[in-house]
Every structure is written in structure tokens, then in C-alpha cells.
Amino acid sequence: MYEMFGSHFFKYFKKHGYDKMIYTLGQDLKKFIQNLDSLHDYLQIDNKSMVPPSFSCNYEDSGEFILHYYSARAGLESWIKGMLTTVAKEIFSTEIQLKVMDIDTDFPPESRYQTHVRILISFASHSSLAASLDDFVQPCYPSKSLITVKSFVRYFPYHIIFDSLLFIKQSGAAIQSVCQTLRFKDSVVKLTEVCELVNPPVNFSSHYIKRFLNSSFTLRLKRSIEDDCTESSLLIKGKGWGGRCVSRESSLLINGQMIFMEDTNLFLFVCSPRVMTLSEMMEKNIFMSDLPLYDVTRELLQVNQQRLAEIEISKHMDEMTNEMKKMTAELEDEKKKTHTLLSQMLPSKVAKQLLEGKRVAAGERTRDIPSVSPFCWTAASGGAILTSAEKYEICTILFSDIVTFTDIASQCTPMNIVDMLNNLYSLFDKATEVNKVYKVETIGDAYMVVGGVPERTDQHAHFVSEQAMDMIEASCRVASPVTNLPLQIRVGMHTGPTVAGVVGDKMPRFCLFGDTVNVASRMESHGVPSRIHVSPTTYKVLTEKCADKGYKFEGRGEINIKGKGLMSTYFLLGHAKRTLKAAPRTPSLAKRSASAAASSGAVKVANGAAPSEGRHRLSDPVFEKDETGTPPPESADPGHRQQAGAANGLQFRKAPQTATCRLL
């Protein structure tokens, strides 16, 4: 499995822009392996935390070709076998066999390498090992060196020559300017006294230097103890940015190649300052003039500086892109919140049009609007509305109100009323989502629902009927703050045409207009507690178009509907799969108060605003109904009606004598 992964990794690496670098690493497999460390050094520039492996190869005395693999992670030798097998086949067109000879894990804890694997490489053909110039060209050597030691030290300022015991024999001028102890001819200085080995992470000895000759070496020049700050070994040529001392973190790093000279049994370290950016040069007190003209570090610094600038711009662009994405996501969240909030106030279709900047309401302001709902029109105040843009041929409208709400409100605090209405309306609102009806508005204890608007449907009467039964049953779960008994509501329904639209520019509201709204309101005001009072039109729709539901009704007979005359109405009892469940009736607070007043021979007359039960009627003297919903007997004589009401234990109030429909 690991061998397959190593083979795939090489192909992936080559496919993603590193193919030219791979093909130019070496003329043959041996030099390819020996230069793998330089490839890892390049990759480490952008990944400082990477701990790269190290590769070297040599011929043993037995003539076997051995690969030495050092790594900080154990168990990856199979991965190396798969990768090198693929390299030999695809780059050098040769077949090789790799065999793990032994694995050494005896490393000190501070070492970055934790495993050393020796791998035997067997070639099917040795042609891949005979591609270097040394195999074909024999160079010409002069009889003696034509460069003096003085010239060599001056013109190659960054070099160190040392023996197998690491005693320094010669060093370049730039190295001596940093390590002043090297300026004395007779001084005996070991390399370990003036330098620390940074890379590769092995013991600083000639044995390991020979083993890692194919790796690039990085040394940190130490500060001499006897030097003072003004002539510190860490000052470059005694000058710098203000001539300041350089800390260990900013001390000079030199990077280069270790060469073992077999004829003299000495090591030559050819190096140059390891600086990657101009900022790093300033930190280390290095100038361009300190670098030889032939040193490619000059060009690399300039190219890298341009690269860093491009990376910084790209990073800045990425940050801006991420910030824009974040802001876009936040904007989308806010738009969703706005849409959700607006959809709770207006129909989804209308809310979407408003969010798109479209004008929803259309029409002219007018005063001559026949049969307008009292919820939206005030004739006495001379108000004006916008005529709606959409007409609905048929829909079903529901009104409900709380029985004895006026008496409850007069005997408890406003906060109790708010809590009671909130608990009740929350249950009603949940039911609207289940029954697919639209909540138009609530004013005081009045709750208005419509089916078939704004989304047209043939099942509007059925949906509103289900909503009505849910509301009756939900009211039983909310207690009156006065009596602590379940609330009772009256529900009225009517079916017919209507016109709907958004009214106003500030705080726009989706309103319904037409006589259907008025009749539905009358059904509620003439209703009975805990009963669903429906008009003959709704009765016909439920029995004919929803015949499969098996709706059940109780006929109420003909009653006098204000503004409509006699009308045969019905009470909805349920359908084949559901029977209306309501709380038992309890005497109203008004009736109990009226009975107490009648027993003492007093008749209470209240002048002022009409009670909630009569708020939809014109302002003739308004009487509170008894619990059966039967209004007092009609009479042209207000006094006669007053006496009749008192005789039946009722209290009544006289509304202001203005012919107007009052807003809720």
C-alpha cells in the first residue's frame, strides 16, 4: 500500500508544476538521489516548520550501491521504495529493485532524525549510472596553482578549509571579519568553536559530514567571548545599521556545500550568507557590497523580494476576498432575517416584491368605496385608502373575539391582558401554519384569518373550518386572569369575493376589502361562545364542494343580521373525522354583575364606548347579548328596550350618536 502511495505521490508531484525541477535534478539516478536534499531545501523556504528527510548514496566495499535514508518519521521506507522505482522507470527508463537491509533508530532525543534506513539498490541496467561528465571527460590540471593563498582568501571571502578533526586551516576574508579569532595566523581554532551546525540535524563531526556531503550545510557563526560589543564577532566588517551588536536570533547564517578533498584529506566549505529578504539583510547588518558579484545570492534576493511582494499582494487580496465572503454571508443572513420578519407581517409573495424594490399597492385615493370593511375605512374621519391591486373571486374569512373581554380587561392589569393575549394568539398562530391559512391581523381581542388569500385554493373553506375548530380548542388551554377558568371565544365565518392589497407607505399592511369582510364580522358578533357561527354561503360551500369531508351542522334558523336582514345561519359541529371539542360554558362576568344589580332593583346604564361584543355595529344603542347570542328585542322606543334589557338581567351602553363604522 505504501509503495503504491509513493508511486502516486511522484506522479502527483510531477503533474502539479514540479516536473521541470524533477527532470533537472541529476543526469543519473545516483545524482538524482544526491540532489533530493536541495529540492527539500527549496520546499522548506515556504514551509518553515517542515522537517525534510535526507538522502545519500554510496558504493560499499562489496560494490553494492546503498541508499541512506534519514527521516524524522518511522515506517516510510516502503513509500520511498515505491517513489524511487517510479522515478527510475519514468525518468531514466531503467528497472531497479530495492531491498531494505537494516533500520537504525538509535538517535539522541535532541536529534531531528529518528530513523536511518539502508536500502540496497540493484539495477537491471547500469546505463543510468554513466551519464555524468566525469565518466567521459578527463580535465587538464596545471602543474602548479596559479592563484595565491592571499588572492584566494580575498576573492573567495566565504569559505572555510578544515581537517578531519575540525581544526580550521584557512578561511575567507568575510568569515574572518565576523570571527575575529581567525585573523591570527598562529591561532588554533576548531570549527565547532566558531560555528554551530544548523542543518543537517546531525552530530557535528567529520564522520557525519562525509555521510551528508550531498546535503547543503547551514552554519551559524558564534560570537567570540573575548570580543566586546564594538568589535563583536557578529558585526559585519565592523559596521552596520548604527554599528549595533547583533543578537543570536539575527546572527549570521552561512549556507553552502561541503567538499572532501581526497588528495589533501581536508574539507572545503564553500558558502555564502543565508539571507532570503532585504529585511533580513538589514537585521543581520549585511549589505549588497558584502556579497561577491559572482554570488547568485544577489539575484535571488531581488527575485525573492519581488516574489514576496507578489505574495503579500495575493495575501492581501485573499484577506479582502475572505472579508467580502464573510460580509456577503452576513448580508445573506440579514436578508433572510428581513425576509422572515417581513413574511410574518405580509404574505410571502408581497414580501418578496417589496424586497425586490417593486411597488405592491396600486390605485388611486378615493372616498367612494362601497362595502368597505370597517377594519380599514373611517368615514367620519375622512380617511382615504389605496384601492387594492388584486381581486379574489372567492375566499373564506374568519373573525373571533373573546367572550366578556371588556369585563376581564376592567378587572386586571394591562400586563395580565398582554400575557393572556400572547398565550392565546401564539396557539392561534401555530394553527395557521398547519391549516395553510393567512392571519390578516389582530386588534385587541379580535383575530382575523382568511383562506384562499393570498394563495388561491379550492379548499379555502375546509382550511378555515379546521382553523376555527383549532382556535376553539386552543382557547380552552388559556385561563382567564380574573376567574382562572378557560377562555371562551366566538367564531364567525363567511365565504365570498374580496379585494386584497397593501395599504400605506409607512408600516404597510395587507388588508381585505369588501362586503365579505362585513358579513364575516357579523357572523362573529351574532355568534355564541365556544361555537362556530357560519353563514349560509359557507354552509353551502362546505356541504357541496367539501362533501367528501362529511361536515356536520346545527341549524340556528333565521336571525336578524344588522344591515342584512333575516339570514338562515348554522353552527359548525365538525366533520366525519373530527368533532368540535369546547370547554363547558360558564356564566359571564357581565351576566353575574347584571343579575346582582337586578336583584337590588338597580339598572346600570353605561354611556361611552360600546363593549367589545358590539364593536362592529353602527352606533345605535348597543346591548350585550346573553350567552345564547340572542340580541334584545327590537323596538323603536329606546326606553322600552332599556326596560326589556333590565328585565332580563342585562346591562347595556349607549354608543355615541354618530353614523360611522368604528376602527377596532
TrEMBL record:
It is an enzyme of class 4 (lyase). Pfam families: Guanylate_cyc, HNOB, HNOBA. Its EC number is 4.6.1.2. Residues 590-610 have a biased composition (Low complexity). GO terms for cellular component: guanylate cyclase complex, soluble. Residues 582-664 are annotated as: Disordered. Residues 613-628 have a biased composition (Basic and acidic residues). One of its GO terms (molecular function) is heme binding. InterPro entries: A/G_cyclase, A/G_cyclase_CS, H-NOX_domain_sf, Heme_NO-bd, HNOB_dom_associated, HNOB_dom_associated_sf, NO_sig/Golgi_transp_ligand-bd, Nucleotide_cyclase. It is found in: Cytoplasm. Belongs to the adenylyl cyclase class-4/guanylyl cyclase family. This is guanylate cyclase.
